[in-house]
Amino acid sequence: MTNRKGIDIAVVGATGLVGREILSVLEKTKFPVGKLLPFNSGRKAASVKFRGKSIAARGATLEALAEAQLVFMVSSDEVSEQWGRALAERGVWVIDDSAAFRLADDVPLVIPEVNADAMTKDKRLIAGPNCTLTGAAVAGWPIIQKAGVKAIRMASYQAVSGAGREALNEFRSHVRAANGALKKADPLALPSEPKASAMPKTAAFNVFPQVGSFNAEGECSEEVKVRKELRKIWGRPNLPVSATTVRVPVFRGHSLAFWLETERPVTPDEAKKLLTGAPGVELWKNGGYPTPLGTGGSYPVHVSRIRPGAHERELALWVVSDNLLKGAALNSVQIAEALLKKGWL
Ligand SMILES: NC(=O)c1ccc[n+]([C@@H]2O[C@H](COP(=O)([O-])OP(=O)(O)OC[C@H]3O[C@@H](n4cnc5c(N)ncnc54)[C@H](OP(=O)(O)O)[C@@H]3O)[C@@H](O)[C@H]2O)c1
To answer: Would residue 1 count as lying in a domain?
Structure first.
């Protein structure tokens, strides 16, 4: 239960891209934070800003983390594996944004607008999903509840910030280098392709169909995550899902071309009605459509261009959502808010 001074919260990875957004969402939503305990790798001195104060981040230990009632884990799979279960066993609520526990049978994988009922009082370790499928999961859910689902197909256009701070910094330096090259007189001269180290290819002025590593079937790990996590969140364990995940030169905001094949026919107008006012959805009407540049930093899943797909049981949609917010930090804070509302925190 909340004490009078609020809930003591630790953020592991507070200095990273998602960690910074968690602090910002906690501030904006006026979540009742008592003590804020920020953690980083401990490799160099760093501090974070929270409610106008600068707070030093430090390296994590189990004892230090267990001082909190709620721990947001936004660091890496390895760090989450190190602390996640041990903290939950000590009675600390853990909301984990890494991929470490998402598919574990005993860990709820939660998007509150879709499957808040997956949370139970005794399961103190809760996972948030991969940022790419979140938009599809939220946008598709009101339609699926009405018309069922037979198959999902999607192509993603993913921002560089989805790969973390190092990738984003590398992208920015590649853009600066390429801008220099564009001063050449020949308009057809390509900028040179600088060597990428944080991602498989350079993202500046480029597009590449690889997010994560490839498996023996030629799928990349992001494509596998989209399939497996969507199945778990929607409670459709055998749903056919085909995704092509693509990195594009965008700072923040993942976009999806998304085809939803339903069991029963549903017209675009019916789908629009179902999505009007649906939780977490902003429906774009009158021909408008969202872009990642125009909607970056915003909270909702933006849905637009709802039109017929390949046949009467398929819809095609354009969906944009902020990978750092609804794809990670905002979703995690919403999970915490749901715990608070249930009186479990
Ligand atoms: N980026 C996204 O859009 C997104 C979306 C959904 C989920 N996620 C997941 O969220 C997590 C964080 O992603 P991110 O993009 O924010 O990464 P990031 O920008 O690279 O930040 C990583 C953070 O982890 C900290 N860290 C590194 N090693 C640590 C250790 N041993 N102990 C404690 N902290 C450590 C870093 O601290 P230093 O400052 O000391 O290096 C930094 O604060 C990842 O698991 C990622 O898969 C990310």
So the answer is: no
Q: What is the pLDDT of residues 241-269, one digit of tens each?
A: 999 999 999 999 999 999 999 999 999 99
Q: What is the pLDDT of residue 235?
A: 98
pLDDT above 90 coverage of the chain, percent: 92
For residue 331, which of 260, 229, 247, 241 has the smallest C-alpha distance? 229
Ligand 1 neighbourhood includes 280 CB (under 6 angstroms): no
- In ligand 1, which atom is closest to the CA atom of 167? 20
58 lines ligand 1 (CB under 6 A): no
Q: Are residues 243 and 293 in the same domain?
A: yes
Q: Which helix (H) or strand (E) holds 35?
A: strand 33-40
Is 157 in the same domain as 295? yes
pLDDT attached to residue 3: 54
Q: 93 is in which domain, residue-wise?
A: 7-129+328-342
- 2 is a domain residue: no
Q: 308 CA to middle of ligand 1, Å?
A: 39
Count of C-beta atoms within a 10 Å radius of residue 302: 26
Residues 16 and 113 reside in one and the same domain: yes
Q: How far, in Å, is the centroid of ligand 1 from the Cα of 17?
A: 7
**CATH number of the domain enclosing 122:** 3.40.50.720
Q: How many residues does the chain have?
A: 345
Which of the residues are catalytic? 131, 254
pLDDT at 182: 76
Measured at the CA of 50, the angle between CA 44 and CA 53, to 5 degrees, comes to: 85
> CATH code at 218?
3.30.360.10
pTM: 0.97
**Ligand 1 centroid vs 144 CA: distance in angstroms?**
33
